[in-house]
């Protein structure tokens, strides 16, 4: 067989050719028939893994990682790592794969840019978000074991997965964070512990020397502020039970997270929900306070947020915080944003007025206490005037039933 005598150089060329042609099967055969040095480089100092990432081929990248390719191996002439190439390719799943194999997110190329910064530069926002929000599970391991003189871990081990999910969330709208907090099992019952762990993680991110990550430090800080606010709501509701004066509070719910979400959503009527300048008053105040309380005042992220918020006619604090964590987006498609949680591409509309959109029924339900006052006003005349019998689909029926149930809930809660 001619191939059996292939020299090492020929073999390496063959590997790069197969990757170049996205020939997954050919590469697989090649790798299984020869003892291949997987850490070889081409004339630009690019390894096969870096090249596969440059091509945005996740399948080949996976194959090379399975063969033992070092995810952080870098001899590239401009110091682009596999993650830099993955981020530039625009494939968020590929970035996830590399990070789950230990790719360093703080590595910089020869012009001092990280992978996330390069992704932002070319407008690959999903990659920016995925990289900026990635947290290795090992970071949590530390907290589920007793450290130093402690007899108990800071985080009960059974909460590790829930907590990991909570801190990795990409949508950092405060309402969405509160919703996730509720969905991640066990967290609501351990708020004080979660709060302490988040504060400790914030500190750790800022004391990692060359790997210091201020974006992550700010995110932990922000999440800890949300948790603290929910604890405050919990205490307030507790006090309200026993105090007649507090029972007149306008927000009628006994669930602390729901109470917090309603506070976040409330706004005065002049503050128009359909404009880019929409700033629910309490939400704005809470987020500005969160930024102000970030203890690392020398950090770039702190200075930038403060400068933006202090400018004339500043954007909403929610968009400033979100941009700081997930990178600036060039266009915000207001018409596709969930009015409850700020999620992108929310495509369910209020079936009555068709003027507001939500991710799902849960977001609609949470917004109903406000929207019920506006729904009729927002209803478009053309719809009111049609004489056709309105066709109500199953989804609408559920929405209506939900709305009614919600009304009843409000009436019966003490
Ligand atoms: Zn939503
Ligand atoms: Zn409506």
Automatic annotation (TrEMBL):
Its main location: other. GO terms for molecular function: zinc ion binding. One of its GO terms (cellular component) is cilium. ANK repeats lie at residues 44-76, 78-110. The keyword Repeat applies. The keyword Methyltransferase does not apply. Gene3D superfamilies: 6.10.140.2220, Ankyrin repeat-containing domain. InterPro entries: Ankyrin-MYND_dom_contain_2, Ankyrin_rpt, Ankyrin_rpt-contain_sf, Znf_MYND. Pfam families: Ank_2, zf-MYND. It is found in: Cell projection, Cilium. Residues 338-375 form the MYND-type domain. Keywords: ANK repeat, Cell projection, Cilium, Metal-binding, Repeat, Zinc, Zinc-finger. This is MYND-type domain-containing protein. It comes from Aphidius gifuensis (Parasitoid wasp).
């Amino acid at each position: 067989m001619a191939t059996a005598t292939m020299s090492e150089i020929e073999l390496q060329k063959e590997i790069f050719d197969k990757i170049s042609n996205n020939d997954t099967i050919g590469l697989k055969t090649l790798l299984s028939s020869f003892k291949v040095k997987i850490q070889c480089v081409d004339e630009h100092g690019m390894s096969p893994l870096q090249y596969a990432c440059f091509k945005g081929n996740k399948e080949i990248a996976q194959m090379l990682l399975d063969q033992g390719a070092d995810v952080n191996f870098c001899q590239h002439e401009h110091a682009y790592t596999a993650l830099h190439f993955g981020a530039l390719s625009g494939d968020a799943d590929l970035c996830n794969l590399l990070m789950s194999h230990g790719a360093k997110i703080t590595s910089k190329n020869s012009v001092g840019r990280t992978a996330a910064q390069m992704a932002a530069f070319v407008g690959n926002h999903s990659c920016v978000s995925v990289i900026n929000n990635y947290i290795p599970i090992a970071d949590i391991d530390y907290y589920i074991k007793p450290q130093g003189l402690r007899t108990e871990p800071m985080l009960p081990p059974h909460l590790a997965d829930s907590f990991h999910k909570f801190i990795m969330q990409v949508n950092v709208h405060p309402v969405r964070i509160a919703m996730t907090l509720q969905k991640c099992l066990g967290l609501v019952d351990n708020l004080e512990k979660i709060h302490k762990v988040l504060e400790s993680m914030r500190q750790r991110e800022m004391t990692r020397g060359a790997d210091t990550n201020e974006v992550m430090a700010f995110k932990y800080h922000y999440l800890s502020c949300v948790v603290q606010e929910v604890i405050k709501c919990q205490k307030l509701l507790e006090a309200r039970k026993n105090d007649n004066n507090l029972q007149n509070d306008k927000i009628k719910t006994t669930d602390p997270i729901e109470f917090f979400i309603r506070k976040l959503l409330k706004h005065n009527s002049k503050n128009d929900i359909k404009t880019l300048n929409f700033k629910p008053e309490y939400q704005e105040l809470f987020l500005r306070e969160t930024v102000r309380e970030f203890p690392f005042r020398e950090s770039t992220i702190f200075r930038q947020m403060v400068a933006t918020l202090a400018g004339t006619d500043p954007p909403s604090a929610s968009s400033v915080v979100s941009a700081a964590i997930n990178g600036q987006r060039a266009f915000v498609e207001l018409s596709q944003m969930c009015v409850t949680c700020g999620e992108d591409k929310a495509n369910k509309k209020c079936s009555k007025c068709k003027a507001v959109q939500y991710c799902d029924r849960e977001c609609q339900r949470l917004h109903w206490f406000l929207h019920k006052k506006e729904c009729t006003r927002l209803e478009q005349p053309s719809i009111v005037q049609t004489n056709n019998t309105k066709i109500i689909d199953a989804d609408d029926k559920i929405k209506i039933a939900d709305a009614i149930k919600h009304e009843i809930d409000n009436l019966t809660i003490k």
